[in-house]
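--- STAGE predict ---
source: upstream dedup step, 1 unique chain passed
mode: sequence only
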Amino acid sequence: MPDDGRDGYAIQDPGDRQHDARARRRTAVRVGVGLLLVSTLIAILLTVVRDTDGRRQKSADCIPHTVASWSTATPLTTEFTRYGNDGTRTDDWTGGDGTHSLRLPDGRLLWLFSDTYLGPVHAPPNPAGEPHPWRDATAPMVRNSGVVMTEGGRLAATLPAPLFPDPAPQQWRWPVAARVEPRSPGSAEQVVRVLLWTRAAGQAPWIYGVPLATEVATLSLPDLRVESIVQVLNQQSVADPSRRVLFGTTLVERDGWSYVFGGNDGQAASRPTSSAFVARVPEGALADPAAWQYWTGSAWAAGARPGAVLGDERHTGVGSAFSVVRRGGTYVLFTMAAGTEGLSTVSSYWSCSPTGPWHGPARAFTAPLPPGEVAAYNPQAHPELGGDGRLVLSYDVNWLRTTDASAHLSGNVGLYRPRFVTLRLRTAR
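--- STAGE serialize ---
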């Protein structure tokens, strides 16, 4: 190539310049296509990143969530006080725990409770001279109940109790999570499905009963009549009762699946930190045992032994009852006894997948408690009562000592009822 002698810059002829221009255009196209492919790949990876065991690890709409603030939800707590203290009937709810709720298609709200007191409530003072409404020591207690709230938020009626009969002498059923779903996959008819924990009377340390199995009850709509109860997971073959897993403490719906969470009892007497487990069931198939798939720790499998998704049972984990909600692509778990705070403080975890990994625990709030030797437990979220970025959470209250609990719960009926708080969650990128 000739040189014009000006500072060593070469001068190209027109043919060479045209050739180089075409080459640059081809290179630009290749680079553009490459960048587009890389951008597409990055977008896919941000949407769903999976590791070798198939778990969803991160998504674009999965953002860490923690509790920003909370306040007492006084109107809800007051409504349960009003209904429980109403002495006009002797066969309705006056106190209970295990508080779960479900919005029905007609707008009503079904509240499900475990051990429930019935019978009349008397105005104060009580026989001990204390200024508390009270019930007779002989007031009946049943193992479960259902209470219906109107769409306007007024408790209206207790369904015939117990709603779910005892399966055998010295055994009982505690209702937990519930959902409205098709009677069968693809069916236009809807029913209510309620998860049940079956337990049996036991000796210390099993003062709260020995876990036996998970069942699913089908209730008709709109009359809420129990049609059937099916056992989906029998745990009696697990020799150590503390290793038995019962499912249904909470349930999350997504993409045509019900993700059903469960836990073990850890050490029965003190209800310490336990492990969390998860199963999934196609919509409409909760009452079909063959449709259940359990997360083993590496895959979903039918008929498999569940593997824990959260909990080393010392520093991290859950109480025997906990709750999970979904905010976009983020799952947020609320629990007490998370390994650090015991039966007074609600802690939270977050994850991009029901199977984890779960991040936390983060301290959320210390539950307000009435005076006395009482404990808070079973935090349960009620998404159907929230809105505008708010989440309603309930927790149950009970007397700590089992030796004199009945006398205290009868002498002050306000102890054994749910309390409610309203949470605001914040995100952190």
